[in-house]
Sequence to fold (339 residues):
Amino acid sequence: MIDLRSDTVTRPTAGMREAMATAEVGDDVYAEDPTVTALEAEVAALFGHEAALFAPSGSMANQIALQLLVPPGDELLCDADAHVVTYEIGAAAVYGGISSRTWPAVGAQIDPDVVAGMIRPDGYFAVPTRAIAVEQTHNRGGGGVIPLSTLRELRRVADDHELALHCDGARIWHAHVADGVPLAEYGALFDTLSVCLSKGLGAPVGSLVVGSAERIARARFIRKRMGGGMRQVGVLAAAGRYALAHHVQRLAEDHAKAARLAEAVAPHGVLATAARTNIVPLDLTKHPLDAKALAAAAREQGVLISVLGPRTARLVTHLDVSDAEVDRAAEVLTTLLRA
Ligand SMILES: Cc1ncc(COP(=O)(O)O)c(C=O)c1O
Fold:
């Protein structure tokens, strides 16, 4: 099977497995795992922040960050398609007592004035807005990259209203490679970031929350409360360190593969937006096949794709799809779309 459903389907490479097998470990709940500590220091430094905390998943990393920034009963603003309100099954409300309000989903195209207009002024028992969250790159927004200028504007909006700014940076590595923006430049714009090792970077598990030393000390408590305190987890941190050393710059290859797939399907009028990174968003509104039918027919021919809605689907390139497999997938999909 050629699996284009997600970049989470990758398996650890031989080099990564070797790094895991030989990792030095300790009890990380006592903060005594040297490989975890090294990974946390490395990631904090990459983003120019004081500290970072290893977490089992991107969802937990996001939710720890949101609990750091928004007290119970107060409000988070994000877009309607954001992972934090779409795929984290109400965690902000359940674990943090956080109220979320969304601006209409436009993926990576954000109008900072619209966001500013949503911030609640102090007033009669109004829910206080405390934080804004954005997603870089934007998953449901077709892997779109939020321009640096927009992020700077959002930082200004947040500062003007004394709000915190969080980045769900599960795929911030892709934005860094696509736009050439240094990770530290992104880091400087946010109070907290969550970054994933288990998406495009190909590690089996792991995300980090990045922020100030004071926030990350609190994050350690929140992680433990959520059941995310882990013991000899250096075996997983070693996979992450290997991924950072070997799998960041190669993301450009995944972007090129996505561009090839996008170019192949574009003549059939199903490309939702340009493929900026490793995601090819399909819009089948005007096509006789709906998303489920296309996915089922592609599966018959050995190609797996994601169904996101009745007429929306997604192809994702990653470490485990070769150039030849991309060509084969393009052939299968174009044949089905032509029929
Ligand atoms: C943008 C984004 N944020 C967060 C996550 C959550 O990561 P996890 O599946 O590790 O909880 C994902 C997962 O695909 C994602 O795409």
Observations:
- The chain has a mean pLDDT of 97.
- The radius of gyration is 20 Å.
- Residues 44 and 76 are 24 Å apart (CA to CA).
- The first helix runs from residue 14 to 21.
